[in-house]
Amino acid sequence: MNTPIVEPKVVQTDVGAKDGQTKCPKCGATDISLNENKGLLRCNYCRHEFEPEKVVGMETDISKLEGTVIGSGAQDIIASTDEALTFKCSSCGAEVVIDTAEAMQARCHWCRNTLSVNQQIPNGAVPDVVLPFGIKKEEAKANIESFVGKRKFFAHPQFKKEFSSDNVMGVYLPYMVVDLNAHANLAGQGEHLVRTYTRGEGKNKKTYYDADLYDVEREFDIVIDGLTVESSSDKLDNKARNKTNNIINSIMPFDIEKSVKWNANYLKGYSSEKRDTNIEQLKGLVEKQAKDIARHKTNVTLKHYDRGVAWSKEELNVKGQQWKSAYLPVWLYSYHQKNKNLLHYVAVNARTKETMGSVPIHMMKLLGISALVEVLGFILWLLVAPFFSSSEDDFSWLLFTLGFVYYGIMYARYRNKGARHFHEKETNAKTDNLRTVDNFVKKRTGLRNAKMEGANNKSVKGSLF
């Protein structure tokens, strides 16, 4: 018998939204913008502030989530959708065109009233929710200036000459926020260290380990609340050689629980980038990251296995999932390094002030000083080597690596190529109904590795970078 296909439940998140003029309920003006200090919309004429609206209809108790629920703003993009919309101004009757690829608002050229796009259109431009800017530009500039200022010594001369925090831009970037109600089952083997000992003498001295081997299983319910992934294909491109996308990824997480219903007035004074990916394109990434979260949640129960656990089975049965599209706020500085055709970003999370960046490096200067450090390391080795000539623990050879270590540390500090969002630890998740199996199998002796071979309980498979 064929299993019936259950269609996703679509929640209309733009109920009550109206395109055109959004008027202040107190004075009727349409000049409305965000007050970053409070996260409220404010009339720029009478100063009246609006209480933010919340999206209704989405499941809030994720443990009760069943099937697939999709916010209407997260539905598939229809490529043929016309991005240019024409509105008739309700004040003067003039026709106003808004190109949703570039903006979500426009002023009437006759009466100067503001017209907004608030109803969802199937081109990815209008999300379900928006998280308002909470950090002012002055604060973001100070953070970026501080970040770059600590990296001026090896910064490329052209970058130092051209850097200006006045070029910082506030931008709403598109994300998908996913809630999951799932059941996890992990099975494998783990090792517990019994003793460490050595055999042989002098240069033939070797370290060995004895360990107890166990069959290990962990089964539990897990609720993942607000797993957030980029929904711009550009920012999802982890193999891009011409831009430092990982920098933007690394400033997550956001306090997405404070997101509000979409209103184009939140974008006034900021730019935005619309979503261009669909749920089907992001499912694989979400599944990998959800498994990462489940795997890392079990580690608190695996402290006995100090040599690690090698999971051979990892199952995640999703009972319910909920998707909604979101605009999240970022202060962004970008710099194009022409000689390498590389776009560097310095980004600030406009809610938490988390700051990360990539700074162009003056490679000749870094290589030269690294070589000098290497020479100093060699001189130190000449001075200390006689004292270790008869010692079994001669680590003086490490002095030969000083220049390479210095280079690696400085390069990492400036470029931050490994910076990323630690979704496996930073995503809200809770487990319940834990079932554990820990069965002794046998003793292992004479092991040469300090950690269990194949241990993967701390691995990450869903990282973009």
What is the averaged pLDDT score?
Answer: 91
Radius of gyration from the alpha-carbon trace, in angstroms: 28 Å
Low-confidence spans: pLDDT under 50, at least 5 residues? none
Q: Total number of β-strand segments?
A: 18
Tell me the strand percentage band.
25-35%
List keywords for this structure.
465 residues; alpha+beta; 2 domains; 11-stranded mixed β-sheet; 3-stranded antiparallel β-sheet; 20% helix; 34% strand
Give a quick summary of the entry.
The chain has 8 helices and 18 strands.
Secondary structure layout:
Elements: E1 9-11, E2 32-35, E3 40-43, E4 49-50, E5 67-71, E6 84-88, E7 95-99, E8 105-107, E9 114-116, E10 129-130, H1 137-149, H2 157-162, E11 169-199, E12 206-230, H3 233-236, H4 245-250, E13 260-261, E14 271-272, H5 279-297, E15 309-337, E16 342-349, E17 355-357, H6 363-388, H7 402-415, H8 423-426, E18 428-447
Parallel strand pairs: 1-5, 5-15, 10-15, 11-14
Antiparallel strand pairs: 2-3, 3-4, 6-7, 8-9, 10-13, 11-12, 11-15, 12-18, 15-16, 16-17
